[in-house]
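Sequence, please.
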């Protein structure tokens, strides 16, 4: 099932980046998973109209980073805990992609539509 993943990071009132957001982004990069994030959006505390601040208000999230997952079916999930997001979304997505690649490899007569 196709999904779109948005990571929301924060810039604090003093203009400095959120330390936890930077740590999580670094983890994603070191684990080779950053490319699985479709968009990174900034919640700038100095600008309540920034896209990230609007997403935080829309989903009633008060901490950063957080992840917005929109499935093809229209269902939206919000994750505020990185390890839960990693386990339930990223690792599941990797497993599905690996399974699909194996099926295609085993059946070269199949093709994508």
């Amino acid at each position: 099932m196709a999904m779109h993943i948005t990571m929301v990071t924060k810039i604090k009132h003093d203009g400095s980046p959120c330390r936890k957001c930077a740590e999580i982004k670094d983890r994603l990069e070191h684990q080779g998973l950053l490319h699985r994030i479709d968009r990174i959006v900034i919640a700038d505390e100095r600008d309540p109209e920034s896209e990230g601040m609007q997403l935080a208000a829309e989903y009633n999230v008060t901490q950063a980073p957080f992840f917005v997952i929109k499935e093809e079916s229209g269902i939206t999930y919000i994750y505020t805990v990185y390890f839960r997001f990693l386990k339930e979304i990223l690792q599941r997505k990797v497993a599905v992609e690996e399974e699909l690649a194996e099926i295609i490899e085993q059946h070269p007569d199949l093709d994508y539509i």
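Strands lie at 3-11, 39-44, 66-71, 76-79.
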